[in-house]
Structures are given as C-alpha cells and as structure tokens.
C-alpha cells in the first residue's frame, strides 16, 4: 500500500484519541480553557456521565469573531506569545482540545468579547464547521458538547457506567478547584446534587477553606501548614496530621504552577517524610503546591498534560520532604483524638431513656424507714437489687497523693493521678484531664532516643554475660546475618551459631532486659519486605522502630506514681510525642469545658 496523506477529519480523530479519552477529559480541557480566559466563575453541567451532554459556562474574556473562527482549527492557540515551549504560563497551549472534541462529538460554542457588539456562535459536528452566527450572551463563553464519540462509535464500548464516568468528572473538577481557590465552581448533573465551591479569600486561609470544602472537615481540623523554599522553588500547602490516613495514596495531591499533575515523585517524598509516623500500609492526606520558573519544568511531556518533568527533580523532592518533616515536627504533639472532637463524641450517651419508666422500681430506690439515713443505708444497700452495682475489684491504682502540686498541673500533660487497667495513665491538668497510653508513649520516647544516639555517637550497648541462642529457620538466619552490620549500628550484635540459629552477644542498653528471640523474629519479618533499593537510612529507621516497640513499657505493667510522672515529663520533652511510630495517638486530652457539656453543666 503506497504512503498517502490522511484526510484532515481522520487526522483530527486520531488526535482526539490522545486528548479525549473519556468525558472527564473533555471537562478537563474545557475547564482549563475557562481558567486561562480569566474566569472568576465556572459552571459545569453533565448528563449521562458526560456522554449525552457536557455544558461549561464561564465569565472570562470571551473571543472575538476572528478568534472564534480559528479556535476550532488544529494547533491554533492564543496562549503562546512565541514559539518557546519552555515558557508556558497557562494550563493549555497545544491548540488541540476544541478541534479534537469537534471531531468526535457535536460541539457548540457561544462567546462574547468585551470589544464585540454582541456574541457569536459556532458549531462543529464530526469535524465539519458551520458558519459563524450572531448570538445572545452577556459575557464570557458557553461551550456545549453532546453525543460524545458519535463519530467514533467504537470508543463508546470502552466507556464505563454513567455513574463511574460522572465520578471521574467530579474528581477532575475537584482537582482544578483545589488548584484555584480564587475561582467559584459549580458542578451539577442528573447523576448528582449540585455542588458549589465559593471563591475563597487569597492566601493560606482561603486555600485551607477550599481544601476543607473538598477534602472534608476532618482534613481541615487536622491540617498542618507546610512551606519550604530554595533556589527559586517554593513548596507550600497543607498536610494532615499522622492520625488522619487513607488505605491508598489517592488522597495525595500535587499542583505545579497551578496545574494538577500526577507524579510518582510525591508518593516517594511523602512516604519518606511520614516514615516515622505511619505504618507501611497507611497513607497520609496532603495537598502540595509547587511554584517555580516555567523554564525549570517541562509540561509538554503528555498529551493530556497530566504529567510534568522537572529539570532538578532532586531539589523538588528534597523540598517536599523538608517541608513535611518541618511541619510534622512543629505540630508533633497534635493527634486527631485531640483536635477533631473524636474523643468527646465517643463519650456521648448512645442510649435514650426508656419510656414509662417507674423510678420506684429502680434497684437504687431506698427501702425501709427514711427517718435516719445511717440506719436505712445498711438496709438499702443490702437489697438483692444492689448486686447490679457490683463491678468487681477495681483495676485502677488509686494509691496516690490527694492534691498534686501546682507546678505539675501547669505542665502540658499535667500531674499523674492514677493508672487504670494497668495500661492507661490518667493525669490532671489545670483545665482538664489527659489519658495516656503508656506503651505507645514510651515507644515514641525510646524510638527518638535511638535515633538521637545513632546520629550522635552510636547506640550504647550492653554485653550479655551468657550469649542468648535463638533458633530460627535457615532463610531467616541468612536474612539477619546479611544485615548484621546495620543491626550492629543499633547495638544489636549477632553472629552465626550453626545452621538455623544465631547467637545474640550484645543488645542496646536502652532496651534493658528484652526478649531477643521475639525481637529477631520481628526484625526478620520486616527485612523480608525491604527492597534493595530502599535507602540505608530508611532501613535503619525500620530497625529502630522495631526495637523501640520491644523496649517500651508494656501494657499490663503497674507503674508507681513517680514513674507515671517521669513518663509524662519525658513525653513533653520528646519530639513527635503525639503519636507512636505506628501512627497511633499516645494520649487523648479532654478539656473541662467539654466534660461539663457532656453532663449538661454548660
């Protein structure tokens, strides 16, 4: 078959296959055009998941008669002042969106520029343009797309259900709305109730308002502001506290010069920044905005412009990690349990009083003569009904001084008052009370001490008088011996003791008396999941986290009052003490005002 030039309609349909993948792609391209036109309000309507109809109206600059005639031709754009593709300041620049959409659907454009006496309209069906006609429109542009892919029916087979396509459209609009909080967005359609995101004030407060409207009140309540800048590159935004997590990385958003992009760079950087706070199967929620010179980033690497390439990707990654770590360290004592009212809401009564309840039938109803309380008390409390109030032996250690000193009450975590269930320390502050998980709290303290010792002059170790022999399967032994040098840096010295066994000769002094067999098994399990490409620092932190868990005060251990107070003081001096290194909160604080509300005193 000889080589021949393809007709323009076929060329446009081929190009549409790259740009118009699904209805959400159409919404993305048209909404980006509205943003580039300087719109302050954008209304989006869809029907049938965008397959039957898409309508987008904006109050932007609009187009003149001459611009409208060129806008639906391939590679015609008003967004490039010259031919330098490295100085792109707009979301769109290819000039392919409108002709690609017109090649596979029925496209109608009505627009009015301020210099025109009235609006103009143009339609394109299957790549065939109509004449430009006068129309009525006060300002901006209205674009109507109907019967998507009617010119290429085979593409319809690859679309999902209307609900799924509508959700994809919603996600596209959400990302664009997060990128531009100064623009009001309205999204409506038969598949959903209309939702409007009002324009927010400029600055960080307005950005957080928009992010909270989209990501939810729980994100707004736990958001930490982050910022880092170097060599003309600025990374700023908001990151959720470690206690607000997701099962996947879909809650991580990256915007580069106002453009929503998907980049594996952010996943690795966020994972590194949160490595001290979260378990491996949980992912944080973050929204980061990168601003840099347009010549330092290439947006022309993907037809849909959803990917970018940085000239100095290492710098951007380092700034993301630094910004997140700095923000998390600054707010290290915050947890979801202390910031979003979760603790208080869990205390609210979950039952309603029974109807027609006769209080005289209550086991607490006094029986017998009432003239003298002392004489009646013995009779009343001897009633069989009082057995309902027998809760057994108390699990709280109440042996403690009656009145704590004033200086302890003024400390952030207060004065220890008691220990309940041999697991939780209850302390009193000047304006409330604090409940501390003793194991989680001590785990964070030991972990931070191990990190500090490693950075300073190595972890202090204790030599065992008699080496402890631990029997394991041969594969596990080999795995441990391969990492013997890394373990030695934390004071855990092991060596081979024949097939299927290792001898433990030294352990970190911070851990005190520890179960070496259990510690080695846990370490081996974690090492099995390591990738060889995992940086040494990350591997060492995994080792430290495992050791900290084994060297911490265990649940079920009864503590003396001075031990409880000492633990509280160490928590106050330890960074990131709001949660253990598995992401669980270490304490819950209840303000006196909230407690009074629970009992109807306020």
From TrEMBL:
Residues 211-329 form the DNA mismatch repair protein S5 domain. Keywords: DNA damage, DNA repair. PROSITE patterns: DNA_MISMATCH_REPAIR_1. Residues 416-559 form the MutL C-terminal dimerisation domain. InterPro entries: DNA_mismatch_repair_CS, DNA_mismatch_repair_MutL, DNA_mismatch_S5_2-like, HATPase_C_sf, MutL/Mlh/PMS, MutL/Mlh/Pms-like, MutL_C, MutL_C_dimsub. GO terms for biological process: mismatch repair. Pfam families: DNA_mis_repair, HATPase_c_3, MutL_C. It comes from the Bacteria. One of its GO terms (cellular component) is mismatch repair complex. GO terms for molecular function: ATP binding; ATP hydrolysis activity; ATP-dependent DNA damage sensor activity; mismatched DNA binding. This protein is involved in the repair of mismatches in DNA. It is required for dam-dependent methyl-directed DNA mismatch repair. May act as a 'molecular matchmaker', a protein that promotes the formation of a stable complex between two or more DNA-binding proteins in an ATP-dependent manner without itself being part of a final effector complex. Belongs to the DNA mismatch repair MutL/HexB family. This is DNA mismatch repair protein MutL. It comes from Bradyrhizobium erythrophlei. The gene is mutL.
């Amino acid at each position: 078959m000889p080589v021949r030039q393809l007709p323009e309609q076929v060329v446009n349909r081929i190009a549409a296959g790259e740009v118009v993948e699904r209805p959400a792609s159409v919404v993305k391209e048209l909404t980006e055009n509205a943003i580039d036109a300087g719109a302050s309000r954008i209304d989006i309507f869809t029907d049938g998941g965008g397959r039957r109809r898409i309508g987008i109206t904006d109050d932007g600059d609009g187009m003149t008669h001459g611009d409208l005639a060129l806008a639906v031709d391939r590679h015609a754009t008003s967004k490039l002042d010259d031919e330098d593709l490295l100085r792109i300041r707009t979301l769109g620049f290819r000039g392919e969106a409108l002709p690609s959409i017109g090649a596979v659907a029925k496209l109608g454009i009505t627009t009015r520029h301020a210099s025109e006496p009235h609006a103009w309209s143009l339609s394109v069906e299957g790549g065939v343009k109509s004449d430009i006609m006068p129309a009525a429109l006060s300002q901006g542009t209205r674009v109507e797309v109907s019967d998507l892919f009617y010119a290429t029916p085979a593409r319809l087979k690859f679309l999902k259900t209307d609900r799924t396509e509508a959700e994809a459209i919603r996600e596209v609009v959400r990302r664009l709305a997060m990128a531009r909080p100064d623009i009001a967005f309205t999204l409506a359609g038969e598949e959903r109730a209309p939702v409007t995101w009002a324009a927010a004030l400029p600055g960080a407060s307005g950005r957080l308002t928009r992010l909270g409207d989209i990501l939810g009140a729980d994100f707004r309540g736990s958001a930490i502001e982050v910022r880092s800048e170097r060599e003309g590159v600025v990374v700023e935004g908001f990151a959720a506290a470690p206690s607000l997590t997701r099962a996947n990385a879909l809650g991580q958003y990256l915007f580069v010069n106002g453009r929503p992009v998907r980049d594996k760079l952010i996943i690795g950087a966020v994972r590194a920044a949160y490595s001290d706070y979260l378990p491996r199967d949980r992912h944080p929620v973050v929204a980061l905005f990168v601003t840099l010179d347009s010549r330092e980033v290439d947006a022309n690497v993907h037809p849909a412009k959803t990917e970018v390439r940085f000239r100095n990707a290492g710098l951007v990654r380092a700034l993301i990690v630094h910004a997140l770590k700095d923000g998390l360290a600054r707010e290290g004592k915050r947890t979801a349990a202390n910031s979003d009212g979760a603790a208080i809401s869990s205390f609210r009564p979950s039952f309603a009083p029974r109807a027609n309840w006769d209080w005289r039938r209550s086991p607490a109803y006094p029986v017998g003569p009432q003239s003298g309380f002392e004489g009646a008390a013995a009779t009343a409390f001897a009633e069989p009904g009082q057995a309902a109030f027998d809760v057994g032996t108390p699990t709280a250690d109440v042996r403690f001084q009656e009145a704590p000193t004033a200086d302890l009450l003024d400390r952030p975590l207060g004065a220890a008052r008691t220990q309940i269930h041999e697991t939780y320390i209850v302390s009193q502050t000047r304006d409330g009370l604090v409940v501390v998980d003793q194991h989680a709290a001590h785990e964070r303290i030991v972990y931070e001490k191990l990190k500090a010792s490693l950075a300073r002059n190595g972890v202090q170790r204790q030599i065992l008088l008699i080496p402890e022999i631990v029997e394991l399967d041969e594969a596990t032994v080999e795995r441990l011996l391969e990492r013997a040098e890394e373990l030695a840096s934390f004071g855990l010295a092991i060596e081979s003791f024949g097939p299927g066994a290792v001898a433990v000769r030294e352990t970190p002094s911070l851990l005190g008396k520890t179960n070496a067999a259990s510690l080695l098994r846990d370490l081996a399990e974690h090492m099995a999941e390591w990738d060889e490409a995992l940086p040494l620092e990350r591997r060492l932190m995994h080792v430290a986290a495992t050791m900290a868990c084994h060297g911490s005060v265990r649940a079920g251990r009864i503590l003396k009052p001075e031990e409880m107070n000492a633990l509280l003081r160490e928590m106050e001096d330890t960074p990131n003490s709001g949660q253990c290194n598995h992401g669980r909160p270490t304490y819950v604080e209840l303000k006196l005002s909230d407690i009074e509300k629970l009992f109807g005193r306020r």
